[in-house]
Amino acid sequence: MVGVKVTPQEKNSRLRKLLEQPGIIRSFGAHDVFTALLVERAGFETVFIGGFGTSASLLGLPDINFLTLSEMADAVRRMARRLTVPLIADGDTGHGDVHNVVRTVVEFESAGASGIILEDQVVPKRCGHFEGKQVIPAEEMVLKLKAAQKARTDKNFVIIARTDAREVYGLEEAIRRANMYGDVGADVVFIEAPMSVAELEEIAERVPYPKFVNMLTGGKTPILTAKELEQMGYKIVVYPIDTLLVTAKAVMELTKALMETGTTLAMRDRMVTFDELKEILGVDEWLGLRDALKA
């Protein structure tokens, strides 16, 4: 793939159509561009770039507000440039007040994201499955969502409104906020960290807007299949950090094998071949570009 042959507007339109069509949208998290290519090759409808994976990959730091807006926007730009499917990006709190939200939306949209998640945590924020979260007043989040809608230039750019109120104030307040955010025009709403299957079911029953759900392995929410979530009424399911978890385990086992045996041969059956790696990266296509231009 010598350059992406799908425009940002086409990707935005594709995500909007996926929202309007029946069926659940599966979005797999990628912590770097190479991983995103593998996710796309697997056939996922969208790719997700989250703050947790990006902070770990780019900085080697936890998801507790170390990433700056410019760092995240650059990560979005690099990933979106190599994908032909829509990219949904984690905008955290919008990196500040309403004016910061405007800049965040502008930067993410111009970087090639097709959707953004904005949350109602205070600044600085932390991972939605960490303890000690705090949220801003719902009315303040409404202003942020209105600012986000005014800032986007393409109406197909999707705004996902997340509330972290479940842990802070309980499920009832989280549902109230999700519906309030849907009322003011969020395209999709997202209650982070439900604590049980019963809570997932109640959210699905009481929130009439398109719903986003986070299947974070090792987190607070029970892990269900995409089919089960679709039957409940969820529209988008994301698996945000699994590629990071698997990569960490694989590299730890690889380095252990090398330290203990002096080679990595014991891990060969768990590696792609060099030829497969070149194919994923499009080596032959890039190296053949000069001859292709002469034809």
CATH class of the largest domain: Alpha Beta
- The CATH architecture of the largest domain would be Alpha-Beta Barrel
The proportion of residues in beta strands is 5-15%
CATH topology of the largest domain: TIM Barrel
Radius of gyration: 20 Å
Assign the structural class, choosing from mainly alpha, mainly beta, alpha/beta, alpha+beta, or little secondary structure.
alpha/beta
Task: Outline the structure in words.
The mean pLDDT is 94. The chain has two domains: 8-241, Alpha-Beta Barrel (TIM Barrel); 248-294, no CATH class. Helix 4 (69-82) packs parallel to helix 5. The protein has helices spanning 8-20, 33-42, 51-59, 69-82, 98-111, 138-151, 165-169, 171-183, 197-206, 226-232, 242-261, 274-281, 283-287, 289-294; strands at residues 25-29, 46-49, 87-90, 115-119, 158-163, 188-191, 211-214, 236-239. The chain contains 14 helices and eight strands. The protein is an alpha/beta fold.
